[in-house]
Structure formats: structure tokens, C-alpha cells
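Field log, afternoon session.

UNIT: design team B
ACTIVITY: writing a sequence onto a fixed backbone
BACKBONE:
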């Protein structure tokens, strides 16, 4: 164990903190990834046109919620705000489970579930990483973020297996209840993490979580507009979201055509998730930290965009479910194992207010805004009778620009 921990670059005084963060992120992503196959199945039932509109609704809901989060951060202790996000999400899942159980065919409830999950999945991940970048400097982030991220990946690995096994005996509403319980456990895990952070001599910045940040709830907008660095971050997230959305709608189309049964679609999505998380976990434990320390953040940020250029070109030639599945697996595994840790390391160089207000704005509003815009763009291109191959070439171009922005951000961060 000592040898293994040494290879992972975990120092003795950091072990309890890393374990607590690992467990917290496990609960957060396990809870979300149990819901993801259910959400995707609802998307196939509603159809591409309806989902495009739901992407717009998701962006609008994100715009409405982020100022409320900013207000809470300005007025309430940060630790309370972070725990409240998990609590609100868990309670909302229980309410949705009761509504959907009373009327399984209620399309309004299904649409609300789709939008709510799409908003809050970014919130719960963003608030976790906000806490981590607030507590750790650049050096610790490079060593430990890959390992901490592996906690979420482990949760994401367990979740699709659970959904695959439970979807038939307990149904969608049962999955929602189990997920809600996991977010209840996440609140306890966060309390344990905060307690150890206060005792961790290496976490010198662990003071102040009991105090509000203060300031304007809308400060995230002004912070972004005044900073070329944060504007570049917005561009990176917009391009990431656009690439993801182009692939997502192609997935909806091909899964609907290939698998007629709804429960079978849920199982297919769950199995794709399992494959993604298994590949991600191996990469995080074996390569992410080493790449960040030895090759730099530019490799973390640019690897996936470059891979997606190749993936879109492959889809331009052969557009079937199996090729798409490989591209989706590579994209998602690369994002979780490489891009996400790289993004979070970038935020270690900004001040506390930016970490809580600008970061959440970018992670949620900008990301979902990019989803909505790219969904409408894709819908317009499809309406103009653009072929699938041509759409794939557009996606390759977006991925190329994404890689360039990632390289610029890495260079800017390295200069301080």
C-alpha cells in the first residue's frame, strides 16, 4: 500500500483528505449516472425536435438558477451552500419519483425530469470541483486531481451496472429514489471532507468556509467580461459543448433506429456508460497525474479535441451506431480523465470569488447555452438537408478550434 500510494504521489498527511474527496465524488457521480440512462431513454421517446427545444429550456433554467446560487454564496456560509445543492437535488428526485409513479405516461413530468437533470448534473459536479480548487493550489491539483476524479469515475462505473440490473425490477421511479439516497450520503461525505480539510496542514487555505463570500450575486458575469483568461475559458466550454451536442443528437437518432425497445435502450446507454467509466478510471489512476506533471496541462486540454477531429472524420465516412459508440466512448472517457482535470487545474490560479461565481456561471450557464445554440444550429443545418457526412465535417472543424483554444489557455495559465 505504501508503494502504491507513493506511485500515486499522495503524501502521508494528504491521505485522509484524498479518501474523503474520493468518497464524496463517488456518491455524486454514482447518483447522477444512475439517472443518465433514464434521461437518455426519455430523449429517444420524445424525439430530436422535442429534445432540441428542451436544450433551450435547460439553458433558460440554468440562467435563472445561477444568480440564485450567486446570491447564496454572497450571503450564506460556503459549506452550507455546497451541502444545500446536494440536498435540494435529492429532495427534488424524491418528488419527481412520486409524480412519475402516480402517472408513468405523464410527458410533462418526463420533460421536466429531462431539463432538471440536465441543469443539476452540472451544478452538483461544479460545486464539488469548486470546493476542491478553493482548497488546493496548482502543485497539489496536478498531483491529486486525477486521483480525486477517479472517485467520481468509480461511482460512474458502479452506477450503470446498478441501473442495468435494477431498471426492470424497480423501474424508473425506483432508480430516482436510489439516486436521491446517494445525494443524502454525499452531504455526510462533504461534512467529513471539510472536517479533515480544517485539520490538514497542507490545506493552508482551508479557512473561511464558514463565512459568506459577499459581493454581488451577478458578479460572475462582470468577472468573466473583464478577464481575457475567463473569456477564453468560456470559448473552450462553448466549443466542448458544441462538439458534445453534435454527437449527442446523432446518438439519439442511431439508438432509436437500432433498438426499438425502451428498456433495451436504457440498458444500452448503461453499458456504454460502464465502458466509458472503466476506461476513464484506468486512465485517471495510471496516466492523468503523470501527464499533468510531466507533459503539462496543454496535453490534458488538447488530447480530446484532436481525437474528436479524427472521430468526426470517421463518422463522415461510416455513420453507423458502432462507429458512433466508439467515438462517444473515447470522447466521454477523455473528457472525464483528461479534459475535466485540466479545466479544474486552470481555476487554481483565480481568486475565491471567481472560483465560486464565475466558475459556476461558466460550468452551467455557458455550457448549457452552448448546448442550446449548437442544438439549434444542428437542427437548422438538418432542416437545410445537409447530409450526415457534412455535419460530421462541421463537427471536425469545431473540434479543431477547440484544440487551439485549449492550447492558448494552457500557455496563459503557465505564465501565471
Amino acid at each position: 500500500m505504501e508503494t502504491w500510494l507513493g506511485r500515486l504521489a499522495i503524501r502521508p498527511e494528504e491521505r485522509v483528505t484524498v479518501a474523503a474527496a474520493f468518497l464524496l465524488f463517488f456518491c455524486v457521480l454514482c447518483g447522477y449516472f444512475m439517472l443518465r440512462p433514464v434521461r437518455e431513454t426519455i430523449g429517444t421517446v420524445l424525439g430530436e425536435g422535442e429534445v432540441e427545444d428542451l436544450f433551450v429550456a435547460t439553458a433558460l433554467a440554468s440562467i435563472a438558477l445561477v444568480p440564485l446560487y450567486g446570491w447564496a454564496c454572497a450571503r450564506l456560509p460556503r459549506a452550507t451552500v455546497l451541502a444545500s445543492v446536494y440536498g435540494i437535488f435529492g429532495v427534488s428526485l424524491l418528488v419527481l419519483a412520486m409524480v412519475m409513479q402516480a402517472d408513468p405516461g405523464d410527458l410533462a413530468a418526463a420533460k421536466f425530469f429531462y431539463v432538471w437533470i440536465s441543469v443539476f448534473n452540472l451544478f452538483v459536479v461544479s460545486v464539488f470541483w469548486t470546493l476542491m480548487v478553493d482548497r488546493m493550489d496548482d502543485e497539489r491539483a496536478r498531483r491529486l486531481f486525477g486521483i480525486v476524479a477517479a472517485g467520481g469515475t468509480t461511482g460512474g462505473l458502479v452506477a450503470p451496472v446498478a441501473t442495468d440490473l435494477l431498471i426492470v425490477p424497480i423501474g424508473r421511479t425506483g432508480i430516482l429514489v436510489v439516486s436521491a439516497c446517494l445525494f443524502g450520503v454525499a452531504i455526510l461525505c462533504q461534512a467529513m471532507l471539510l472536517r479533515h480539510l480544517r485539520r490538514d496542514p497542507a490545506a493552508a487555505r482551508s479557512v473561511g468556509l464558514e463565512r459568506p463570500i459577499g459581493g454581488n450575486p451577478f458578479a460572475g458575469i462582470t468577472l468573466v467580461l473583464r478577464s481575457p483568461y475567463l473569456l477564453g475559458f468560456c470559448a473552450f466550454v462553448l466549443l466542448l459543448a458544441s462538439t458534445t451536442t453534435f454527437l449527442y443528437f446523432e446518438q439519439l437518432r442511431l439508438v432509436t433506429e437500432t433498438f426499438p425497445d425502451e428498456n433495451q435502450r436504457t440498458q444500452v446507454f448503461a453499458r456504454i456508460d460502464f465502458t466509458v467509466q472503466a476506461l476513464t478510471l484506468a486512465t485517471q489512476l495510471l496516466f492523468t497525474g503523470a501527464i499533468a506533471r510531466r507533459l503539462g496541462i496543454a496535453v490534458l486540454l488538447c488530447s480530446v479535441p484532436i481525437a474528436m477531429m479524427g472521430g468526426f472524420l470517421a463518422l463522415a465516412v461510416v455513420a453507423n451506431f458502432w462507429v458512433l459508440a466508439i467515438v462517444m466512448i473515447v470522447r466521454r472517457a477523455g473528457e472525464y480523465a483528461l479534459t475535466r482535470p485540466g479545466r479544474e487545474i486552470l481555476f487554481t490560479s483565480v481568486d475565491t470569488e471567481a472560483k465560486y461565481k464565475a466558475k459556476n456561471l461558466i460550468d452551467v450557464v455557458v455550457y448549457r447555452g452552448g448546448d442550446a445554440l449548437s442544438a439549434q444550429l444542428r437542427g437548422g443545418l438538418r432542416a437545410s438537408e445537409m447530409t450526415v457526412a457534412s455535419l460530421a465535417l462541421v463537427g471536425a472543424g469545431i473540434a479543431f478550434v477547440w484544440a487551439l483554444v485549449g492550447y492558448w489557455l494552457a500557455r496563459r495559465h503557465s505564465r501565471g
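LOG NOTE: The two ends are 36 Å apart (CA to CA).
NEXT ACTIVITY: expression trials, pending approval
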